[in-house]
Amino acid sequence: MTLRYPPLRTATHRGAPVVDVDLYGDEVVDRPHEVYRRIRDAGPVVWLPRHRMFAIGRFDDVRLALRDDATFRSGRGVGANPVANTLGHYTTLASDDATHMNRRMILMQSLTSRAIRPSLPTLEQEAADTVDRLSARDHFDGIADFATRLPVQAVAELVGVKVTPEQMLTWGQSTFDGLGSANRRARGSVRGSLGLFLYTLAVGRRNVTPGGWASTVLDAADRGEIGRVEAKNMIIDFVAPSLDTTILSTGQLLWSLGTTPGLWERLRRDPDLIPTAVVEAVRMASPVRSFTRSVAAHTEFGGIQLRPKDRVAVVFAAANSDERHFHHPERFSLEWRGSNVGWGHGVHTCVGMQLAKLEMQTLLHAMVPRVSSISVSDPELLRNNCLQGFESFRASFR
Fold first, then answer.
1. Computed from CA positions of residues 167, 170, 172, 174, in that sequence, does the dihedral angle turn out positive or negative?
2. CA-CA distance, 143 to 161, in Å (whole number)?
3. What's the pLDDT score for residue 352?
4. What pTM value is reported for the model?
5. Are 347 and 71 in contact (CB under 8 A)?
6. Which residues pair with 376 in a beta bridge?
7. The Cα angle at residue 192 between residues 238 and 48, in degrees rounded to 5
8. Distance CA 35, CA 41 (A)
9. Considering all CA atoms of the chain, what is the largest pairwise distance in Å, rounded to the nearest integer?
10. Which of the four pLDDT bands, split at 50, 70 and 90, describes residue 241?
């Protein structure tokens, strides 16, 4: 069924076309690409009256805004409500300029390709065990049993915080729900988001594994490179963003392998295409629907005058499905060799991108000699303010 919308309102806000959609509502969960197309077709910058903020959805414009971090700032938070932006004040995601680069460099000590390479044998063994176990079953859940297993095991061990993987997943989804507008889902996430915030404030050496990622952040505080409260809050950067985005991208990858004719056979014949498949899965998934930015100074963007403190939603998912840039964006393609914004762009590109790539590639390499065919069915979509993807689906290996 195709949703039918009324014609675009002729009214404008400071010259920006008005698009009356709820970016964080069920409408976007159920029919995302129709809503994204409305935003893109309306203009380079549109006004969302329900949220009292602007939005950018075209690929080239999204990249341009993300590169202009002097104008489109993250330091006031990347959520659509003030509570989330206050709670995230000391995180790397919600920072700019030298503060951001300093925090980012500390995190990157654990997340560069070289830093995570020693973990590859463990990831390979876990991936092989996962595929073998699921191959012996008639069917399994593509998210809970396949996509979740490796990120949870890897992150729980590597971060080195003494909490259960289930708690980490709860915290992660709550954090992303809290970054939306102040709707029912955001209000319901407060307990989880606040729980993570309070946990990090209380965390100390006794709560982390020596040599783990969390420990390295505390080490930086001991050296005086960052403040003690700042260091504790930066642990959120490891716990919250690192799980759900990889899980949702991995789920999209498995779904695409099961629904795109000839795709899995081609990857088995030519495993050198696996990195391309991973990047394409992230484009298709666009697991983070959008983050917001705060405008720092008077500027013109896309012909629209923006003022200081204007809030602008940068809609990654709309950009990654932009037919102006991608040929048949609804199709999974191994022919596309360009970049996408599934991991962001510019100075705020996802700091855990290399780990996510390694996890997804390792799973595919484990599948190549073990799985001849993939079946998927019965998808259920995730309902979250900022995350998008599958909540679950039925899958089987043969």
1. negative
2. 23
3. 87
4. 0.93
5. no
6. 395
7. 90
8. 10
9. 60
10. low
Q: Kindly report the number of other CB atoms within 10 A of residue 274's CB atom.
A: 19
What's the 3-state SS for 52-80?
CEEEECCHHHHHHHHHCCCCEECCCCCCC
Residue 74: how many other CB atoms lie within 10 Å? 23
List Cα–Cα distances, 265 to 106, 169, 259, 269, 394, in angstroms: 41, 33, 12, 6, 20
- Give dist(CA 158, CA 116) in Å, integer: 9
Taking CB atoms within 8 Å and a gap of at least 24, the contacts of 191-196 are: 193/84, 193/87, 194/87, 195/171, 196/171, 196/236, 196/239, 196/240
Which region, left, alpha or beta, applies to residue 250 given φ > 0 means left and ψ of -120 to 50 means alpha?
alpha
Q: Which residue has the tokens 């001991």?
A: 222
**Amino acid identity, position 382:** L
Pairwise CA distance, residues 44 & 63, whole Å:
12
pLDDT at position 51, please? Answer: 96
- CB atoms < 10 A from the CB of 35, how many? 24
β strands within the chain, DSSP E: 12-13, 16-17, 46-48, 53-56, 72-73, 140-141, 291-295, 299-301, 304-306, 311-314, 374-381, 390-397
- pLDDT at position 6 is 43
CA nearest 385: which of 149, 154, 164, 81? 81
Going by their DSSP bridges, the two strands 53-56 and 46-48 should be labelled as antiparallel
CB 326: neighbour CB atoms within 10 A?
18
CA 260 remoteness from chain centre: 23
Average confidence (pLDDT) over 277-281: 97
Residues in CB range of 99: below 8 A, 6 or more apart? 75
Q: Token pair 């920072």 is at which residue?
A: 95
Residues 88-136 pLDDT 10s: 888 899 999 999 999 999 999 888 888 888 889 989 999 999 999 999 9
